[in-house]
């Protein structure tokens, strides 16, 4: 039975679901609020089960050809002196340490998914869902351009601030956005000679962290992470870009290392993004014919490194369950929930105490962290941990769905 499916959100999760559903003969439309493919963002990782799903999609070779060459991570001090270096494990075996084996620019990844689906999926840019209603026969959707249509399923893949989620959660349910007490800003600056393919991480006092990494011969990415749980800071992200930049510049001005260069590059960068670090936690992933996917349902935050993997694995399982139970969507969505949730619970389990420990307030605390990194490096701690770590988070073995072949 061919279903008519509307996916709201053309980021990572939406197109990944569309891939499977279109391949199995369903009629899929993706609406994306942005006027064009939103192929921006910094470097993302593909890990563990996400790699397995990409392989089943037949996209692993294409993804591999776009990988960012990052050999490892080095911890530096205010003079740029290296205190510890952790190299990536490139053997393709065992668990990955701090640098994932599959690092790719978000833009490249979004384009890979789009190219793999654009011939079988109808994409509409510059359009979003304005209003919807449902009954046992279908979902009736009104769009931002005044048009309307009827579907069997509406998928909310509209990111961490999902409007579809807001519409299906009951007004008295608790706020699903859980703040991790941190903020991030990232942007691109011109590459300089000293920017190698070993990422630099610099911690400084006041709960601040700076990272620089390079993805090609002309550009370098800068990441600022600020741990500050003052709720008033949430408003920064709604302010104008000019105000946002002012805020970050003022908080980091005295931070040392290459900060002056980073702040200079911030003024003219074309790639600017800043966000509060939040997780989405809700018991409700579906209601009737509406279902949530990716960050809209279970955003894990960039600190987890699992956002993209979560999107791919969730899309695969949701598609599998829909194809297995096309006449019983309630069963399909409930199986999707029970199969995926333990995995989500595990990758959302970020220790906020660890975040606090890693971003100390005092100079003394920062020096201690650098010393511990040096010691860990000397004793090969990450390699030892990797040996005991299972690559399959949450014990989830990617299930087989013969229906998807
Ligand atoms: C511009 C951007 C940059 C990012 N950069 C990074 C990064 O550097 N590192 C990182 O770890 N993660 C980043 N992320 C988040 C990362 O893409 C996700 O965590 C992950 O890939 C899950 O994907 P998703 O499709 O669920 O969400 P997203 O990738 O956020 O995609 C959601 C899509 O829905 C669209 N959308 C939102 N509201 C509506 C609406 N009402 N109607 C229609 N469409 C709508 C958005 O424009 C977006 O294209 C970024 C996200 C975006 C949107
Ligand atoms: C990479 O992982 C494999 C498998 O766990 C291990 O045998 C190897 O020693 C690791 N290499 C490095 C450099 O850590
Ligand atoms: C949605 O569209 C239908 C059909 O065109 C129309 O009757 C209805 O009034 C619209 N609802 C809203 C809230 O715009
Ligand atoms: C480097 O990456 C950016 C996108 O992040 C792109 O616009 C630019 O063309 C790339 N440069 C080279 C030399 O590949």
What does this structure look like?
The protein has helices spanning 13-23, 48-56, 60-64, 106-117, 163-168, 241-252, 259-268, 295-298, 307-324, 329-348, 352-358, 363-378, 381-388, and strands spanning 4-8, 27-32, 43-46, 72-76, 82-87, 102-105, 122-125, 129-134, 139-143, 148-151, 153-156, 177-190, 198-204, 208-214, 219-227, 272-280, 286-287, 290-292. It has 405 residues and is α/β, with parallel strands linked by helices. The chain has a domain at 4-41 and 108-175 and 279-350 and 392-404: FAD/NAD(P)-binding domain. The strands form 4 sheets. It has a 7-stranded mixed sheet with strand order 5-4-13-14-15-12-16, with helices on both faces. β4 (72-76) and β5 form a beta hairpin. The longest helix has 20 residues, at 329-348. The protein is globular and about 65 Å long. The mean pLDDT is 91. One 2-acetamido-2-deoxy-beta-D-glucopyranose binds at residues 131, 142, 148.
- The total beta strand count reads 18
Q: Write the CATH architecture name of the domain at 4-41 and 108-175 and 279-350 and 392-404.
A: 3-Layer(bba) Sandwich
The quaternary state of the protein chains shown equals single chain
CATH superfamily of the domain at 4-41 and 108-175 and 279-350 and 392-404, by name, is: FAD/NAD(P)-binding domain
Quickly count the helices: 13
Shape: globular
Low-pLDDT regions = none
- Quick check: average pLDDT? 91
Strands side by side in the biggest sheet: 5-4-13-14-15-12-16
């Amino acid at each position: 039975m061919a279903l008519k499916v509307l996916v709201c959100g053309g980021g990572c999760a939406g197109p990944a679901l569309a891939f499977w559903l279109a391949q199995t003969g369903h009629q899929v439309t993706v609406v994306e609020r942005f006027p064009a493919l939103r192929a921006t963002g910094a470097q993302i990782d593909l890990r563990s089960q996400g790699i397995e799903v990409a392989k089943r999609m037949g996209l692993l070779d294409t993804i591999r050809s776009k990988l960012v060459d990052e050999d490892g991570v080095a911890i530096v001090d205010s003079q740029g002196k290296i205190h510890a270096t952790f190299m990536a494990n490139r053997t393709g075996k065992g668990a990955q340490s701090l640098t994932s084996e599959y690092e790719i620019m978000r833009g490249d990844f979004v384009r890979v998914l789009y190219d793999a689906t654009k011939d079988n999926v109808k994409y509409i840019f510059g359009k979003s869902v304005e209003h919807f209603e449902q009954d046992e026969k279908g979902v009736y959707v009104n769009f931002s351009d005044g048009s309307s249509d009827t579907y069997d399923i509406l998928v909310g893949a509209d990111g961490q601030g999902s409007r579809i989620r807001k519409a299906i959660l009951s007004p008295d349910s608790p706020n699903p956005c859980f703040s991790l007490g941190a903020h991030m800003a990232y942007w691109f600056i011109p590459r300089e000679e000293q920017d190698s393919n070993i990422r630099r991480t610099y911690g400084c006092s006041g709960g601040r962290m700076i990272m620089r990494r390079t993805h090609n011969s002309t550009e370098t990415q800068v990441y600022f992470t600020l741990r500050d749980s003052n709720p008033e800071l949430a408003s920064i992200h709604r302010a104008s870009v000019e105000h946002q930049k002012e805020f970050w510049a003022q908080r980091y001005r005295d931070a040392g290392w290459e900060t002056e260069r980073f702040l200079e590059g911030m003024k003219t960068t074309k790639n600017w993004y800043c966000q509060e670090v939040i997780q989405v936690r809700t018991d409700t992933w579906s209601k009737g014919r509406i279902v949530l996917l990716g960050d809209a349902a279970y955003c894990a935050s960039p600190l987890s490194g699992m956002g993209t993997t979560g999107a791919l694995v969730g899309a695969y399982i949701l598609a599998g369950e829909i194809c297995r139970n096309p006449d019983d969507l309630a069963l399909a969505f409930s199986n999707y929930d029970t199969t995926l949730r333990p995995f989500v619970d595990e990758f959302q389990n970020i220790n906020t105490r660890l975040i606090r420990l890693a971003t100390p307030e005092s100079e003394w605390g920062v020096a201690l962290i650098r010393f511990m990194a040096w010691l860990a490096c000397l004793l090969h701690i990450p390699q030892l941990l990797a040996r005991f770590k299972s690559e399959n988070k949450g014990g989830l073995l990617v299930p087989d769905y013969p229906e998807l072949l």
